[in-house]
Amino acid sequence: MNIFVSGGAGYIGSTYVEQALNAGHAVTVYDSLVEGHRSAIDPRANFVQADLSDGARILEALKAAKAEVIVHFAAFALVGESMQNPGKYFGNNVGNGVKLLDAAVAAGVRKFVFSSTCATYGFPDKVPITEDTPQNPINPYGESKRMFERVLEWYQRLHGLEFVAFRYFNAAGASGRFGEHHRIETHLIPNVLKVALGQASQCEIYGTDYPTPDGTCVRDYIHIVDLAQAHLLAMEPGRQGFYNLGNGDGYSVREVIQMCEKVTGKKITAIEKPRRPGDPPRLVAAADKARRELGWQPKFPKLEQIVSTAWEWHRQHPNGYVD
Ligand code: UDP
Fold it and tell me: For the chain, N or C: smaller number of CB within 10 Å?
């Protein structure tokens, strides 16, 4: 199939592009490189460097690619920044996303696969979280993703555009060739691995007084290759709706740090800091729906596999991508 990937130079997008090409699809990456990296784009893909705000450019690129499916990763994704600058999040994640949808309709695209997030659930009233758990986002990032989910429902109803929206839990790990390099790194695993690499003297634990077994936040870490595979399954005609993607296992911040010590063989000093605003104590997915309906089967469900692949990538790319 001809697949058009917005944000294909980003962390999750780059791995998806690699998997889609390996599966024999033709891929066009559309990315501004504001957050993405040129060297994260698989050289087998066509590349269009342009911004999502440019609806005419999107339409031109969709037509040139003869796009049948759009996989939409491009978004701003920093929770803290979204609290400081909500307009940036609503403008890009919703407003510019709608430009992509309008271009999709105009170009006759038949399927739209969207990167949503467990941040749409806010503080869930029960864990593990199923897809019908009420969505009450607690920051503009999560709200922007939930709003776009609603927009997708309307485009499906009014334009017949089939969609699958995946609510990711904590994406982590590396594909071998592609890994995690954010210009501003806020995520736990890469920040802990920086200590093992000798690039930082210590890492920080945000909050030790949560109502969890060891007092630190619990998250459901999922390997990016497994995430990417779910997107390939979603492209099949007739597949439609909202799906959680996680492993259903929760690991605390302390457990993640311990696993990083085990995998790297290095002592990692961690200091205890106050809670980070907006962090729910426990986010763990019930992803049975994706397994049942899409036939999704994670290949790297264990935290040790996730951390090992991340460590391998960071050792080989101690400064991340060069451009
Ligand atoms: N966290 C931490 N130290 C860090 C980065 C994150 O203690 O340097 C915590 C964070 O408060 C959260 C968990 O680790 O409870 C996972 O955070 P991350 O930013 O990786 O993902 P999120 O769950 O926020 O999407």
Answer: C
Whether the CB-CB separation of 317 and 309 falls below 8 Å is answered with: no
- Pocket perturbation via mutation, ligand 1, pick of 253, 256, 258, 282 by most ligand atoms within 8 A of CB: 253
Number of neighbours of residue 223 by Cβ within 10 angstroms: 25
Q: List the domains of the chain with CATH numbers.
A: 2-172+220-245 (3.40.50.720), 188-219+249-316 (3.90.25.10)
Q: Whose CA is nearest to atom 6 of ligand 1?
A: 188
Ligand 1 pocket member 253 (CB < 6 A): yes
Q: Does the beta carbon of 170 sit less than 6 angstroms from any atom of ligand 1?
A: yes
What is the set of active-site residues? 141
Looking at the DSSP assignment, which residues form a beta bridge with residue 271? 204
- 219 Cβ closer than 6 Å to some ligand 1 atom: yes
45-100 pLDDT per residue, tens? 999 999 999 999 999 999 999 999 999 999 999 998 999 999 999 999 999 999 99
